[in-house]
Design brief:
The structure holds 2 protein chains of 2 kinds. Chain A is mostly helical. Chain A is 82% helix and 0% strand. The chains are: A mainly alpha, B alpha+beta.
């Protein structure tokens, strides 16, 4: 099973995950967008963002935000809980399962996938707290100096980034092990065994590529376009969605790679 | 002969000048304060020697003292009842207060104990004031001397008083005489939190004793510093012609120094914040130059900036003569000079307070707008000037040129029932202070700046500041300065209504009829000069002036008109609804491409937290 073929088989699942993200972002920001659109309906803009645009955006956000924020948090929380299921769905699809059976399998593995994610979040919180404490101690201990203090902060940030990368890699490997039929504990043990420097490097490469695509998508909305009212944002939206989908595919390629680390054959699902 | 006479007069004036300065200093009250800090016990042992001249036209029969540290004595003091129990998310977890051990009037041949007949509770449940009768009236022009011993039990750090771990902040820490007016009245009030400086200008000397490992951040000129064999360190400072004196002590302080002309700048920050301290000193240097040039020079030879450690939030954001307490600094504090950070906002605001009310000494309790409102505008204006041509971190992230005043307006306009900005401090509820006393006056001043020009506004503020330097002005004096710069009656006609809460609304609508591109503008509330801009195909623009005398303005039918906008430069920050100031008349008008960015960010966030 090559990465390319598994990606091809998982295309419906990838599209479903992307669609779900779009739907959730609509749920998160749809009401705000509606209010902004109402304000925009009267407004006159130039192609380059102006202080007037900023003022209008701030005003609409300030007026609508307090009412919309609780709902946004609810939708965000729901998506956070949905996360492990979506990852299992993708992994099953990358194994070759159809969208429907992948969704069913992901439900069955949800508790273990959620446990792996909670564990990873806890470890990250502990690591970050430790890093902050160590930084505070180091800053109090070392002689004063702007360059030295900046170096200490950078070193701490780099160390934390390294830990985070290793943790994300281990997490993805553990999720793959869960998709392979392991329970939480066995999945974590498997992940620790497989989490090599090479795996972290590959994952970093995948994350960098995805981040670059996301950045490119972000930059598209900064390009001044003197396009008519109806087509301007629509065109930007299409380009952005294409780039974001490409970023998702890049991440899926890494997930597909994690599956190959677990062996070529997948055990039959437990009844 | 005439030349000889002129020479004699000049010589006399020159000879008299030092004497006049000495006489001025002698006619001011003076406080010789000494204090020993015992960090283990959390107690400060203090002495004060006060020389107080009666500069009024009437004999003085009694004295009023402020013992503001007693605001933290229990939960029923006026300050605590007014909302001090929880201030800026800090809670009082340990009580404290000031106890006078001795209060003596020093006569030529004997000392009179004034404490036995002192009235300690001038407000029910509140001992932040003390009244003592004098054995004999003090005649106008005469002076008295007092010797005081006190013990200050330090509360948990709240409202710039107390301790947080081994950080100590001493604001309102000594017995201080209330303000004595020229007509012989005492103006004394309990500690409200929002007003603490209204007092006579006085000369101060400070002798501070702390354990050797502690660093002291105190204002004024350092006169002596040495260590004692008992493991303590002594520092002496002098601060002349000031309303108050406060200081801080912390073993972790690291110092950074800079100069701004003749003024020595010194920052005290917790470890790891060298870059932040330097950036704040650079900000102070620029601020002193800008404000000094426009409002009159900064009056002291030294300015101290204290950045409290992260655990000492109760000390943050306050001004004292010659000393500013900035925002807390911690491991995550921003070290970027380009950032539009909380530190910059706090430091510039507190710097502006060095003029209002610490030099132009209005009564903050009676008219809080005169210090907080002006300082809010001055602080934000300083930041605007500093960031001119550079996008803030927030603006860079959003890709939109945000403006601090617009952000403040957005917050202000969404607030409900904001009372007048001209009320005394005690009339506001805690949540009303920000929008009424800080935001609206700053928005009103910024509206005037954008409408009438920066130079004019600065000239009005400069005139007020220079005329009222070392004086105790009221709103009338501020309005008079605006009248003299703009036109007679400007203050009452325009500034006062805006500060009282009237808005300056404008509205644009299609003119009823057959032509879809004919528009008309109308206004309500305070009338500000404005303009109506029309954009046409091919980028052509046409601007019509809209004077305050006309309540309506019509723009006739023009098929080429794509859109129209009132106040396109967004000068008017006190229009309650700006959404109706623009009108898009054609689908050919461009739409901003930044709008899809909202969805992009949402999707990125979902990708990070989900899958």
């Amino acid at each position: 099973m090559t990465v390319r073929s598994s990606l091809r088989r998982a295309a419906p699942a990838l599209l479903a995950v992307h669609a779900l993200r779009v739907l959730w972002s609509l749920l998160l920001l749809g009401p705000l967008y509606r209010d902004l659109a109402r304000a925009l309906d009267r407004s006159v803009f130039r192609a380059t963002p102006s202080p007037g645009d900023a003022a209008l955006a701030v005003e609409v956000v300030a007026r609508s935000g307090p009412q919309l924020l609780p709902f946004a948090f609810v939708w965000l929380g729901t998506y956070v809980l949905l996360g492990p299921w979506l990852q299992q769905l993708l992994l099953s699809a990358l194994w070759g399962a159809s969208l429907r059976s992948a969704a069913r399998e992901a439900i069955g593995r949800y508790p273990a996938a959620l446990a792996v994610r909670v564990l990873a979040a806890l470890i990250f919180a502990l690591t970050a707290s430790g890093a902050v404490l160590a930084l505070q101690r180091a800053l109090a201990w070392m002689p004063a100096g702007a360059a030295l203090e900046l170096a200490a902060r950078l070193l701490c940030a780099l160390a934390l980034l390294g830990c985070a990368l290793a943790l994300v890699t281990a997490h993805d490997l553990a999720q793959a092990a869960v998709a392979h039929g392991n329970g939480t504990l066995a999945g974590v043990q498997n992940a620790l065994a497989l989490c090599s420097r090479a795996a972290v490097a590959r994952n970093s490469l995948s994350l960098t590529a995805a981040a670059a695509l996301a950045l490119l998508a972000e930059l598209t909305s900064r390009v001044p376009l003197a396009l008519p009212y109806a087509t301007g944002p629509a065109l930007v939206l299409v380009v952005q969605q294409a780039l974001l989908f490409a970023a998702l595919v890049v991440r899926a390629a890494w997930l597909s790679h994690t599956l190959t680390r677990l062996g070529p054959v997948r055990p039959p699902p437990r009844s | 002969m005439l030349r000889l006479l002129a020479g004699l007069i000049t010589c006399s004036v020159l000879l008299l000048l030092p004497n006049a300065a000495q006489a001025d200093a002698l006619s001011r009250p003076s406080y010789a304060l000494s204090a020993r800090l015992d960090p283990e016990a959390g107690v400060l042992y203090g002495r004060a020697r006060i020389r107080w001249p009666n500069r009024s036209r009437a004999p003085v029969r009694e004295l009023y003292f402020h013992l503001y540290a007693n605001a933290f004595e229990h939960e029923q003091t006026l300050f605590m009842r007014e909302g001090g129990r929880r201030l800026r998310n800090q809670r009082l977890t340990r009580r404290g207060g000031i106890a006078l051990r001795a209060l003596e009037l020093i006569g030529a041949d004997r000392r009179t104990d004034l404490l036995p007949h002192a009235e300690r509770e001038l407000w029910p449940g509140d001992r932040t004031q003390l009244r003592v009768a004098l054995p004999a009236p003090l005649a106008p022009g005469a002076a008295l001397e007092l010797a005081i011993e006190f013990e200050l039990s330090l509360p948990s750090l709240l409202a710039r008083m107390g301790r947080a771990g081994d950080f100590f902040m001493l604001g309102q820490w000594y017995p201080k005489l209330a303000k004595h007016e020229p007509d012989g009245r005492w103006v004394s009030f309990p500690y409200h939190g929002m007003g603490e400086f209204y007092a006579d200008f006085a000369d101060h000397t400070l002798e501070l004793v702390v354990p050797r490992e502690y660093a002291i951040a105190a204002p004024g000129t350092l006169q002596d510093a040495h260590e004692r064999p008992d493991g303590t360190r002594v520092e002496r400072y002098a601060l002349a012609d000031a309303l108050d004196v406060a200081w801080a002590a912390y073993p972790g302080f690291r110092r950074e120094r800079a100069r701004a002309g003749a003024v020595e700048l010194e920052a005290f920050a917790p470890p790891g914040n060298t870059a932040l301290a330097r950036a704040q000193l650079a900000l102070l240097r620029e601020g002193l130059a800008r404000l000094g040039q426009r409002l009159g020079p900064y009056p002291y030879g030294r300015l101290v900036l204290v950045l409290p450690p992260g655990s000492a939030g109760g000390a943050a954001g306050m001004e004292y003569p010659g000393l500013i307490v900035g925002a807390t600094a911690s491991w995550h504090s921003d070290v970027s000079e380009r950032a539009f950070s909380l530190h910059d906002l706090t430091t510039t605001h507190e710097l502006a307070h060095q003029w209002f009310p610490l030099l132009i000494a209005s009564n903050e309790l009676a008219a809080p707008m005169l210090d907080e409102g002006l300082s809010q505008w001055l602080g934000l204006d300083l930041l605007r000037e500093r960031q001119r041509g550079r996008a803030s971190a927030l603006a860079q992230l959003a890709g939109l040129p945000f403006d601090a005043f617009e952000l403040m307006r957005a917050g202000f306009m969404t607030g409900q029932d904001v009372p007048s900005s001209l009320l005394p401090a005690w009339r506001y509820r805690a949540r009303e202070l920000g929008p009424a006393v800080y935001a609206r006056p700053a928005l009103a001043l910024e509206t005037l700046r954008r409408t009438y020009g920066e130079a004019r506004l600065w000239r009005a503020l400069g005139r007020y500041a220079r005329d009222q330097r070392h004086a105790h002005p009221r709103l009338e004096q501020l309005l008079a300065a605006f009248d003299s710069e703009f036109y007679s009656g400007f203050g009452r006609e325009l500034l006062v209504p805006l500060l009282e809460g009237r808005t300056a609304n404008t509205r644009l609508a299609r003119t009823p009829g057959t032509c879809p591109t004919a528009v008309s503008a109308d206004r309500s509330g305070v009338a500000l000069p404005s303009e109506l801009a029309s954009s046409s195909a091919g980028g052509a623009r046409r601007v019509e002036r809209w004077p305050t005398t006309a309540s309506k303005l019509d723009a006739r039918c023009d098929p080429e008109r794509l859109g129209a906008a009132i106040d396109e430069q967004r000068s008017n920050l006190l229009d309650a609804e700006r959404g109706d100031d623009q009108l898009r008349l054609s689908a050919r008008a461009p739409q901003p491409p930044w709008l899809p960015r909202l969805f992009l960010w949402a999707q990125l966030l979902l990708g990070l937290v989900g899958a």
